[in-house]
Amino acid sequence: VKIRGGMTKLYTDVNVVTSLGSAKIKGTIKNPIDAKNASFDLAINTNSVNLGTIMQMPDKLGMFTGSFTAKGHGFDPATANANFDGVINNITLNKYNYKNIRLKGSIANKQFNTIASIKDANIDLNLTASGFFTNKFPSLHLVANVDSIKTQPLNLTPQAFLYHGKIVADFASTDP
To answer: Staple partner for 139: which of 83, 131, 146, 155, CB 3.0–4.6 Å?
Structure first.
């Protein structure tokens, strides 16, 4: 376990092992309480983290294992400039254990871009999403190429339903 620094610059190389799972966090965070001037370079690995117990939602969430990297500046979407990349090896949602989820994205100049894919026995899709944080509510453009979604095994519907297709969404504003 290594932790050096303080509230303006923190370096960590920590491996936490508990009865609720384990996590390794390595990297640096500068100015973490300043949303505009914060910077970070982190690698996070989790193994069998029991999200349901931690978040007090055992009926909706379960175990989570994944690896992520994030590097950039700022936590405020209006000024952030960052990239992230990750793999969710498995996550239990609504009593189904999803596997093989890849995520990659960036934010800069008030624009975000994300690519995601999942290759699971009951859901296989590729998704791209992008938008802008220029107004009070962000815009969103989304394209999902769905090879297949089997809704019953995913506990989304009581009856068997299989979907193949393409979903396109384009919102100038996500104002509900």
So the answer is: 131
Closest alpha carbon to 146 in 170, 122, 166: 166
Residue 52 and residue 97: Cα distance in Å, rounded?
13
What count of other Cβ atoms lies within 10 Å of the Cβ of residue 57? 11
The span from the CA of 172 to the CA of 131, in Å, is 9
Could you tell me which of 72, 24, 30 has the C-alpha nearest to residue 48? 24
Is residue 115 within 8 Å of 85, Cβ to Cβ?
no
pLDDT digits (tens, 9 = 90+) for 118-140: 999 999 999 999 999 988 899 99
Q: How many CB atoms lie within 10 A of CB 88?
A: 19
134 Cβ contact partners less than 8 Å away, ≥ 6 residues apart: 110
- pTM for this prediction: 0.86
Task: Kindly state the tokens that stand for 115.
Answer: 């690519």
172: amino acid identity, one letter: A
Q: Would you give the DSSP letter of residue 175?
A: -
Query: What long-range pairs does 55-59 form, CB within 8 A, spacing at least 24?
Result: 59/95
104 beta partners: 85, 115
Instruction: Identify the CA nearest to 148 among candidates 140, 137, 160.
Output: 160
